[in-house]
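=== Structure Prediction Worksheet ===
Name of assembly: unnamed complex
Input type: mixed (protein and possibly other molecules)
Chain count: two
Listed entries:
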Amino acid sequence: MSRDDFIGYAVPALTLGMGLVVWEAVVRFFDIPPYLLPAPSIIISTLFTDWPTLSSSLWVTLSITLKALLAAVVGSVTLAVIFAQSRLVERAFYPFAVAMQVTPIVAIAPLLLIYLTPTVAVLVCAFLVAFFPLLANTTLGLSSADHNLVDLFQMYRATRFQQFMLLRLPSALPYFLAGLRISGGLALIGAIVAEIAAGSAGQGSGLAYRIVESGFRLNIPRMFAALLLISVAGITIHVLLTAFSHWLLHEWHDSERASET
Amino acid sequence: MSKIVALRSGGGAAASNANRPTLATFKGVDKVFANRVTALSGLDLEIRSGEFLSLLGPSGCGKSTVLRLLSGLTSPSRGEILWSCDRPEFGFVFQEPTLMPWSDVFTNVWLPLRLAGVSKEKARARVEEALAKVGLAGFAKAYPRQLSGGMKMRVSIARALVTRPAVLLMDEPFAALDEITRLKLNDDLAELQSLLSATVVFVTHSVFESVYLADRIVVMAARPGRAVAEITVEAPALRREGFRLTTSYADTCRRTSQALHVAMGEAPPSELCQ
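=== Predicted Assembly ===
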């Protein structure tokens, strides 16, 4: 690990550590009760004591997020490929995808809850939020192949299928992966927002439901613990998708050039 | 419409070039783009089998359009292009290397054969042969971004050669390179062409490059694009650095430069040196 890398990790870690120490000190010095502001130490111990409940909620939220992301990947890539084949189809459907994107998901969730079971409704919400960045990026990527290469393929009488597989798909990959990183985070946000909206409607048991429930019970340390888990889940998703993207692109794409020295 | 001024000096190499059979003939070719820009107007041009033909002219004179017409990427708005035989196999080199960045050198060079359905194993010998010709043996596994500009251009040339094309179309292939790399690639291309006996149509902005490489130079003018002069280069069969030092080279450069100035609608430069 180089010196720059070390500083890159050490500085934010130090900032975090100092923040936690100040937080702990303030809570103890002013004797703030845990139902107003729990100290970091209490949040951590709550995390351990409530782990059985919290871990099963974490699993629920994570599985919804991953299923929604997977569905968004399959759906958006399929649709983008169809768009790439026909301008007309793109013209016909793209505006609706945009309309879906700009309508806040919190406003759609209550409607979905009327027609669907809470679990499915939450899944659909997360899917809708994750879908659009993937669709927009993949559609753009599929039409961004180097025009000289397109000429070259035509000169060598490439079939449409060859041009698609050997040129358009690889050209679209960096765009798709950028979309995937955005959608990974959004799928989690969509799942959380929908769970909160569904909170009173059903037997929700995800992390967002735990936050709402703990709030009602004034169990503030558990609210913080659940929040911490959501953050960690979001960071983990981001890190994993970034690593995945690096693994696929590091040999050739300019966006990965900075990481080698 | 366009009057072609033939500036022939006769002599050994020139005579042998004139004896070459005709490969393709442009007859009164116009090309008007969809945006109504006239790229070519009444172009008459003969391309002879096995020659190194250079198209020289300012930007917008339709040099690149000639290549696109030859390769069949686009067709004339008026006039016709006659081939003396079946349309030959082409190799194409662009100003940019135009490599697939996600593929290694081998896969990039393999591409034309791959599109024709040749498997990787069957293509291996041909790809390695093409890479050896451009001096890149041993670089098969490198990715384009690991290579210098000159090396990327060599990969691009290897890709054009891999199908053993009868006609090599080169669109300002060295324009984006530094002068030292450019001279080196000029030497290598001259040597390569003497080995390949392919027909080369080479588009360039550079008087020196066209004189150094070509058997025949067609000077083109812009707006509308047309041919205005033809210059036959007298030179040894194999061009070497020494050719640049001959009076024949200097003389041809001077004549070509004058023709280019006339093509651009300027007075030829006064001859300070004489």
